[in-house]
Amino acid sequence: MIIARRLLFTLIGTYGLTLHTATAKNYGADYYRSPVGFAITLAGNVGEIRSNHFHTGIDIKALQGVGSPIYAVADGYISRIGVSPTGYGHVLYVTHPNGETSVYGHLNAFAPHIARWVREQQYAKRSFRVDLYPDKSRFPVTKGEQIAFLGNTGSSGGPHLHFEIRDAQGRPRNLIADGVYRVADHVPPVVSRILLYEMVESSSGVPCAVLRQSTPVTMHSDGSATPADTLLHLGEKGYLAYEVIDYKDGKSNTMGVYALEQRVDGQPNFRFAIDRLDFATTGYVNTFIDYPENRRARRTSVLRSYLSPHNRLALYGAQRIPGSGIISVADSSPRRVVTTIRDDAGNSTVVRFAVARGRALPDSLVPQGKPVLWWRGHTFELSNGEIAIPGSALYESRLIAVGHDTLQGMPVVWVGSSDIPLQRAATISLKAHDLPAALRSKALVVTLDEQGRPSTVGGGWNPTTERISASTKRLGCFAVAVDTVAPTLRPTYASGARIPSGRTLRWRATDDLSGITRYTLTVDGRWELLSWDPKSRTLEHTPQRTATPAAHAVVLTVQDAKGNTTTLKATYTW
After folding, report:
1. Alpha-carbon torsion, ordered 172, 173, 174, 179, to 10 deg
2. What is the value of pTM for the model shown?
3. Other C-beta atoms within 10 Å of 461: how many?
């Protein structure tokens, strides 16, 4: 297995697409079994583009439904257990003798002996959310032992198992590209569009990227692709982006691509390969992609073949290619571009076209605004507020326009646009001198979308500056809002009801602005465990039954981020 994989990497490397060499420590299918008892069918793969991060595991479809067994993929011990309403939900981490760790997320439940211990810890901490690190001797596991049940907890869009293997440095491995698991895949990546950006110098000396050309691409059965415009034009220099997606055999789920290499006149100009991911740098996905175009794409991903100045991703090889993907057109001679895009199963698509010298862009297309250097940042002072962008927040230097206005009768400030992401959070401080003292604790910052709809950024009153302050990792339009409305609770059962055997107490909980942050349940005056699922907006409690049904006094209290509280009192029999 390992020898064959090394040969495959050698062959791929001949074409310049692989940035690492397999080693004897690349543990594969001979070491790991499947975490499920049925054929692995993917709903997502490693490196798929998600909101503000790369997907770090494989998502295995629930072919046998919620509650199907989950197995340890190798010998080891459970080193970490998490329960959370978001993220991986119910999750187990198993550390193996080889130094690697397998991760099992969105579980419906743990194996009974694990679940009992976790429940004890939740009651001891009086918290549904826990992050536990049991001693290595508490939960040893053997390869093939059932450790959990497949589910849909946390930030899951449907029943599946999120599964990872992290190497000894804690980096998630690309399990399909590494050959640990195989799925049927003879489908090459699909390229649907090529975008050409021109790099122009503003009057302040800050280079700006302006979209010059967008051309659709036609796929061919031989694995090649042809853009509608086979000759693209630049004024002097620029870079490219590719709208691309991948599929597995017979499946409609979209996947992320594994590698891309762009050659200009036969010489490497840009490349990446997603062999390992690093949690410390996964947020740099927002400069890996064409952020504004990617936001508007529906199922595809728009990837930049450009290495921005502030990009710490380790996907470009030990020796980053000089030029960072920039294509220069010095004279009338066209530059020949050949780009090969590969998926994690080795299928590839090759796109060929040329870039030639064209007319310079008119000055009217050059963005306007204050030059902000990415390593230095800038603080914008406005009549009704302040926006501080720290150094190393931007991925590249920008021209950023700011201002203030009134929208739907609400004073707003705007800085740049929501198409500008940030690696480090900016601070928004808005004046609110006319805010009554009684409402200051209820104030927060909101951002407004293109239709003027508000969504919470958070923050609150700062008595030192007498402003409402919050942190944000995206620029755009901001305003001060006040949240005085308590959450709404709707019980499944009316007070006085008898809860049938096997059923749970459930409430639908919603909040209009700042969001639910605290929830507490008591039964007969004692704290009880209460789960919270934000995606279904459901609070749930499993009653502890006795041989003889009895009436119980139930009190549920829910609070939002601004301290608005709703309490429901009821009596139920179980």
Report:
1. -150
2. 0.92
3. 19
